[in-house]
Amino acid sequence: MRFFPNDIPRAVLAGLFILTLLRLVLGAAHELSPAEARLWAEGRHLAAGYWDHGPLVPLLARIGTAIFGQNSFGLRVWMPFFSLGLSLLIFRLVNSLFGDKTAVWTVVVLNFTPLFNAGGVLLLPGAVSLFFWTLALLMIWRAVHRADPRTRYWPLAGAAMGAAWLASPAGILAPLGLVVLLTGSRRWRRRRTQRGPWLALGVCLLMALPMFLWEIHHDWLPWRHHWQSLSHAPRVGEFFAWLGQLTGAASPLVFLGLLWALWHSVLRWRRQAHGDDGGTFLLAFTVPSLVLGAGLALLGEGGLDWTAPALLGCGLLLARHWLETDWTPATLRLALKAGLALAAGYSVVLLQPDLLRHAGLTWSYQLDPAGKLRGWKQAATECAPVITATAAGPDGEPFLIADSQSLAAVLEFYLAPDLPVFQPDGKHPRVFAPARVIAQDETAFWPRYDAAGSPYLGRTALYITDDDRGRPPHAEVRDGFDSVKPVAMFDLMRAGQPVRRLTIFACAGWHGRPL
């Protein structure tokens, strides 16, 4: 299988290369989000599993920063190439399903959407998982069209499904879609008795086995934590917020088109239309993602990772139905131009919102979708004098505690390496997340400042919070020190507007948490 399809138009291929270069530049220019910094921190503590995802993306972060240095480019360098690969996979898949004309328009439309562009710049586990999810679909489609049940495409499909799972828990949607396909489709039910699909599922589970062993070793704490965090009653507000996320991820007009395409595909499937193998195939992998994403949103745990495969599947169906509709050519061109223009505008606002500020449009960073990518270098710069002044005092070098794992990771990433921060060895981080009695993230399994015989006993800590109200450390932190007092508060500004507020507390005399 050639990486670059022969039948893809040169103009589309050239556009994809230009987009890849642009995404590399944007990835290097933007500061990290706290979520990305957390992946970098996890990459420094490689393991078979983590609290919210598998080991693949932290491994990519570790390799990227080892090659290109500890910077935004090194951390994100893989994502534009995953996006390029995803576009080429989509072209191959849709070309096999519906023909080359539909494949070209699918690639063009999807590369205009905000979700696709964000996944091509930012280090997102869901974007990596989506690449392998699409690769799995292509391998499964080729496998079910082979008369020989021993075709090599089945183990390749299993490997792709396993890689999707190693990137994100949403990767489980690929094997789930395969089960739906082989049980709900009359066309392919006979495949259930052949060994090919079972081989694919076996390879997938074998690749995921280290994650399960990691969970067992840690007493299934992450799964139990996520299960207990689910709401016992439907959260209608969370559900509508999830719908808002989907609308923003696809852009409003494209999202309406996705719903229209999904509705027409379901109607066509119910009529058991002959010759609609492609539509049935995509529905089998799209509906589980949509149903599971909606259910988790109602229970308060919704996220785009679980729904991204459904958005992509609906996008493929949209391009197919778009070209089959009986609208007049003029109407089609008008709707297409309006949809692409709005999607491109949303993508610009998502990735480069300061262009609007330069044009005179003033809006709060709290409402800015890219607000989480702003102000972290400045935050580290503002913290440095406080750290230096504390180290010059009688208590010596302080250690640092942030009010969350994400804040700890992003400060660790941007703090200058020569700051006088107490660090007994390279295994201990310079900035800790709060140590808690009950584990709430993977830092509970890393070196801690509250461990037995801790070298941090008797030392002063600086507690850093980005809470707008500057609330002091919670009791689990506060009770382990002799005294706690605020020493600094500063507002981080950008273009004359506040981005966030940081407050620093001096916590003297760590003596351990009282029993």
Question: What string, H for helix and E for strand, traces the elements in order?
Answer: HHHHHHHHHHHHHHHHHHHEHEEHEE
The beta-strand count equals: 5
Query: Helix content range of the residues, please?
Result: 55-70%
Q: Give the structural class.
A: alpha/beta
Beta strand %: 5-15%
Arithmetic mean pLDDT:
86
Distance between the termini: 62 Å
Strand order of the largest sheet: 2-1-3-5-4
Looking at the structure, what is the overall shape?
A: globular
Runs in which pLDDT lies below 50 for 5 or more consecutive residues are none
Radius of gyration: 25 Å
In DSSP terms (H or I, runs of 4 or more residues), the helix count works out at 21
Give a short account of the largest sheet. Answer: 5 strands, mixed
Description:
The protein has helices spanning 10-29, 34-43, 56-68, 72-76, 79-98, 100-110, 114-119, 125-144, 153-167, 173-184, 195-217, 221-229, 236-250, 252-270, 277-298, 304-324, 329-351, 354-358, 376-391, 405-414, 475-478, and strands at 399-402, 431-432, 461-465, 481-494, 497-510. It has a 5-stranded mixed beta sheet with strand order 2-1-3-5-4, covered by helices on one side. Strand 4 (481-494) and strand 5 (497-510) form a beta hairpin. Helix 14 (252-270) packs across helix 16 and helix 15 packs antiparallel against helix 16. With 515 residues, it is α/β, with parallel strands linked by helices.
